[in-house]
Backbone:
């Protein structure tokens, strides 16, 4: 049973409907510049879709008694894992996986991802339950309890309470604004993204230093930090000989959005604190994740993971499968004239089942004190064209005719480029990848078909332009000031 509020002292006091509901601009105006004060809307925002009031969230914690006896396979040195962002796409699947493996897990999440949907009029294709319902169902199914701390890690007092209460051996940090298009909507979202991500990560580093100096930080970065250099991408570091002298240096970063830039800055801050304070950290430069199911999220409808398909939060393959399911052409970004498309643009991809396993491998094999490790976390590389072909073939098998449409590229990025990124370190630790088989496509496509009635086609097309930052996207139901 979900228990008492452990942090009543920092719990929010909400006005009772006297203040008008706040839109996103108010939220970010309150949130972004305020490093010390409240980042929470005073009276919550109205749901754009349902009209219901979305209660603001701030520094509240819900706790339950923990499982005390992990299986022998889990080392006591890494037994207690705090999953920041555990209500999100990667975090939810990871929290359940670690719990199933016998780790003692606590989720820390501000639930702000759900708020973005409310504000932008977007929503997950799969109907996800509230975090409280999810955890209750998990307890029912597995007999295992996952602690829950609801609050914003940019509020240090809240984070301090989480650390002191849970005393983690490892922190897996997924808790960031993770959409590049979101960060390119307008100034307020660019500022929000960098503030949320960079301040949140600095707070985690300070919390480790002050309350759990032995704690291992496993931080989710992205392969997008590297950009697309015309040489092989190494795992974090490159040895360079220059004017007769040789050194091993951080691999150059060429981020291509305010979101990606926030991740680059995170990496620098983490590397610095490893050196300065002896923090132990693993930076997982993750590729694009696809898929919905892990064995744990499949155990019950109430445990289902989110699946984003809209132009702001949907990632390439997930988006393609949803498009295919409703007969919408696959939207391959390229120049309007179709003469050159981004079909050769290549990225690293991985199955969500591998995301959870990679994180587990990193936790079970922690970095040494003072060590800053970087793993490139993806299993296969595909060009957009190859992905589109795979989806078309899988669609044929299900009797769906899949077409491809080239749409103007909203991003500023190389249209054709060399791409060869190393990814051996997680394999060396024992990762056995799930490759992008047609079976997986069937399962992604079948999920999309199952929930096709929920698809809102007006959310599919890319709506945010890197060059026209500040133009209100169509997904916004009402215009913001
Ligand atoms: N999904 C991908 O394909 C992908 C690829 C590469 C890297 N990543 C990285 O993995 C991480 C997780 O991605 P995801 O797809 O699960 O994102 P997501 O948006 O689904 O989940 C992020 C979660 O973090 C929470 N959160 C955000 N800011 C917070 C804060 N200040 N305090 C507390 N909670 C906060 C959100 O409410 C959300 O539940 C991100 O850091 C992202 O950059 C994801």
Residues:
């Amino acid at each position: 049973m979900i228990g008492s509020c452990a942090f009543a002292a920092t719990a929010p006091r909400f006005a009772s409907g006297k203040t008008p509901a706040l839109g996103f601009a108010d939220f970010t105006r309150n949130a972004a510049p305020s490093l010390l004060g409240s980042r929470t809307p005073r009276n919550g925002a109205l749901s754009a879709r349902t009209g219901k009031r979305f209660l603001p969230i701030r520094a509240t914690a819900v706790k339950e008694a923990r499982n005390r006896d992990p299986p022998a396979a889990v080392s006591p040195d890494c037994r207690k894992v705090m999953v920041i962002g555990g209500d999100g796409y990667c975090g939810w699947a990871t929290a359940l996986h670690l719990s199933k493996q016998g780790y003692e897990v606590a989720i820390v999440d501000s639930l702000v991802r759900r708020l973005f949907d409310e504000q932008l009029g977007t929503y997950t294709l799969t109907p996800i339950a509230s975090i409280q319902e999810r955890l209750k169902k998990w307890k029912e199914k597995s007999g295992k309890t996952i602690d829950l701390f609801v609050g914003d890690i940019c509020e240090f007092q809240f984070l301090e309470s989480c650390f002191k209460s849970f005393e983690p051996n490892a922190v897996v940090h997924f808790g960031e604004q993770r959409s590049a298009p979101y960060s390119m909507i307008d100034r307020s979202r660019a500022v929000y993204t960098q503030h949320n991500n960079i301040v949140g990560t600095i707070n985690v580093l300070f919390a480790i230093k002050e309350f759990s100096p032995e704690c291992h930080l496993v931080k989710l970065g992205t392969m997008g930090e590297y950009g697309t250099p015309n040489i092989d991408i190494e795992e974090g570091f490159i040895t360079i000989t220059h004017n007769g002298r040789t050194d091993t240096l951080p691999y150059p970063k060429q981020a291509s959005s305010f979101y990606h830039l926030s991740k680059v800055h995170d990496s620098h801050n983490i590397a610095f604190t490893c050196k300065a304070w002896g923090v132990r950290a693993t930076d997982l430069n993750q590729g694009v994740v696809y898929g919905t199911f892990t064995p744990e999220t499949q155990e019950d409808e109430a445990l289902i993971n989110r699946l984003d398909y809209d132009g702001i939060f949907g990632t390439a393959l997930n988006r393609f499968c949803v498009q295919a399911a409703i007969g919408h052409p696959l939207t391959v970004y390229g120049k309007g004239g179709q003469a050159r498309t981004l079909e050769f643009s290549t990225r690293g991809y991985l199955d969500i089942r591998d995301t959870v396993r990679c994180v587990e491998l990193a936790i079970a094999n922690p970095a040494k004190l003072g060590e800053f490790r970087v793993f490139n976390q993806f299993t296969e590389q595909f060009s957009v064209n190859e992905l589109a072909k795979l989806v078309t073939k899988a669609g044929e098998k299900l009797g769906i005719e899949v077409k491809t449409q080239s749409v103007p590229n909203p991003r500023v990025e190389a249209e054709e480029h060399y791409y060869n990124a190393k990814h051996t370190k997680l394999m060396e630790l024992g990762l056995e990848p799930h490759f992008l088989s047609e079976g997986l496509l069937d399962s992604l496509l079948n999920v999309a078909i199952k929930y096709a009635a929920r698809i809102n086609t007006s959310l599919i097309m890319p709506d945010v332009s890197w060059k026209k930052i500040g133009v209100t996207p169509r997904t916004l139901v009402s215009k913001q000031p």
